Amino acid sequence: MKYLLNKTFDHAIYQGKNKNKNYFEGWYFKNVSGIENHIYAFIPGVAMQENGDKHAFIQMIDGLTASTHYFSFPYESFSFNPQRFQVSIDKSTFSDQGIKLDIDQSGEKIKGELYYTDQHLFKGNVVSPGIMGWYSYVPFMQCYHGLVSMHHQIEGSIHINGGNYSFDNGSGYIEKDWGRSFPKAWLWTQSNNFSTPKTSFMLSVADVPWLGSSFTGFLGIFLHRGELIRFATYNGSKITECVYNDPHIRVTIRGKDFTLHYEGEQKSTGILKAPDKGSMKREIAESISSEILVEVKDKRGNPVFKETGTHAGIEMVGDIKGLFNF
Questions:
Q1: What's the mean per-residue pLDDT of the chain?
Q2: Nearest-CA neighbor of 102 among 116, 92, 114?
Q3: Among 219, 205, 301, 216, which residue's Cα sits nearest to residue 259?
């Protein structure tokens, strides 16, 4: 019962204790060094196929070269803390306090520790236990999205194939997904490297299966001066504009108190694996070296924020034009 309560109100905690098939769960850790010369994302997770085959994995993407690696481990090497967010795969450990890496596989040797401080962690409540609002309670969703840390400071270093990469005074971001499959189409973008310190932005727009049909759902989170501003399907926000000319996209969302204008252009991408009914057989292109423009105005049209975010993540998968209904 204690584990059930813990995971209900802290979605960072592993959600799949009683799952055995047709399930995945993964956490996304993006790390940018202080002088912005190293950018690495690590994705630990578990995948359980329909036939019951399952394994643990750690994915890695180098933001500068767009090279990617998929490290597979026996499912039994995965463990989790039922009281707080901490997961381990083989000799590596991941939490909102930092990561410890010890990987020696397929000719790749990765070892080191990164320590996270000054985290802006998302904490849920009864009305909105997760960043998805009341949708968090719906039991049959294809995919759930969680926010762990919008922004934090990094200290430490990682050794990769003999090279030493310092992340001192760096910045990081953590989110997660879990469920059966990723959507058939989606836009995802994120950056927390703006001129204004401790600013972070994430936008996800996806095709959401619902009662035999589907709808376009979205979730935009803007962290500015300690305040989280949400643009989401569940709070009545509306997408009022989308212009898509691959690799460029422009989206405008109008909320109750603020209007968001976003522009992004996807740059060099690496191929990551994504789940389909618990099997990591899909391949998606992700960039974490793009630039995005984020502009926010209040309901009177007064400017609140307008800056370019660097080292931005962008994924545009599937029928983007159909996703935005144009």
A1: 95
A2: 92
A3: 301
For 30-46, letters b (16+ CB in 10 Å) and e give bbbbeeeebbbbbbbbb
Which residue in this structure is represented by tokens 């310190």? 197
User: CA geometry: angle at 252 spanning 29 and 315, to 5°?
Assistant: 35
Query: Residue 325: what pLDDT?
Result: 80
Report whether pLDDT(126) > 90. no
Q: Is 5 exposed, middle or buried (0-12, 13-18, 19+ CB in 10 A)?
A: exposed
Whether omega before 82 lies within 30 degrees of 0, making that bond cis, reads no
Name the CA dihedral angle for 43, 292, 166, 106, rounded to a multiple of 10 degrees: 40
Whether the CB-CB separation of 24 and 41 falls below 8 Å is answered with no
Using DSSP's 3-state secondary structure scheme, residue 269 falls into: coil
- In the chain, where the domains are located: 2-323
- Its pTM stands at 0.97
Going by C-alpha positions, the residue among 290, 279, 285, 280 that lies closest to residue 312 is 290
Distance CA 128, CA 174 (A): 19
Output phi, psi for 129, to 5 deg: -70, -20
Residues whose CB is less than 8 angstroms from the CB of residue 176 and which lie 6 or more positions away in sequence, other chains included: 11, 12, 25, 26, 27, 28, 145, 146, 148
Residues 213-249 pLDDT 10s: 899 999 999 999 989 999 999 999 999 999 999 999 9
